[in-house]
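Materials and Methods. Structural model of Calcineurin-like phosphoesterase domain-containing protein. The 275-residue sequence of Calcineurin-like phosphoesterase domain-containing protein from Chryseobacterium populi was retrieved and submitted for structure prediction as follows.
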Amino acid sequence: MKRSVELVVISDVHLGTYGCKAKELLRYLNSIQPKTLVLNGDIIDIWQFKKSYFPKPHLKVIKKILSLATKSTDVYYITGNHDEMFRKFTDFELGKLKVCNKICLDINQKKTWIFHGDVFDASVQHSKWIAKLGGKGYDLLIIINNIVNWFLEKMGREKYSFSKKIKNNVKKAVKYIGDFELTASELAIDNHYDYVICGHIHQPQIREVVNKKGSCTYLNSGDWIENLSALEYNDKEWKIFYYDDHKHLLNDDETEEIQDLNTSELLKIVTNFSE
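The predicted structure was written out as tokens:
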């Protein structure tokens, strides 16, 4: 039985990288029936793309998204920095799928501004090679972390996140996250938005921000590498969905996958975007 959800926001899936939890994301997508699905950047990681590594679960996620867009779900693909090559297709529409750089929605008479958030990242805007180098280092850290967690699970121990530990203990990382959230919120308040929704920093969040000019709700959908999280809006309420808290309720039903696009054809499409 699928859950009906008015709006779902996911970001930072990084399909095509070793850290991506595509199987888990597919289980989540198979468990819901969203009216609107917002893919808020870095869904396919063109920066780290390798023709030798794009497993079937990663392709199945793309097929599932296309399947939703051919039926009753409005799908917005907002471009991020890791999939910036799609920006040349801004305003492209295919069925219910639309590619864009940002969207503004009216949710229960609340003005909602959704964008990836890399516009605030100076390393991406001015020193792309540094950002890409950092991305490779992060990918390596995730690979090592996955190996360690495999041994921890075999030993009956709890999983451990290296990057979360680093982020929580390095003052610069904590300050960057705080600055990011505040900057996005202040811009939203200046432009009279009630909600501002970002991705990019892999930090799930729902918080109220208030300044002298007003207030807004800042939200972040997190990622599908470490947090395995999404934002859901239903019955006039925002919630953060954490896969690990609900995985025992999800099934592996894939009966609704589209059948008219095979795996090799889909891989060709992804490869063409990366070149």
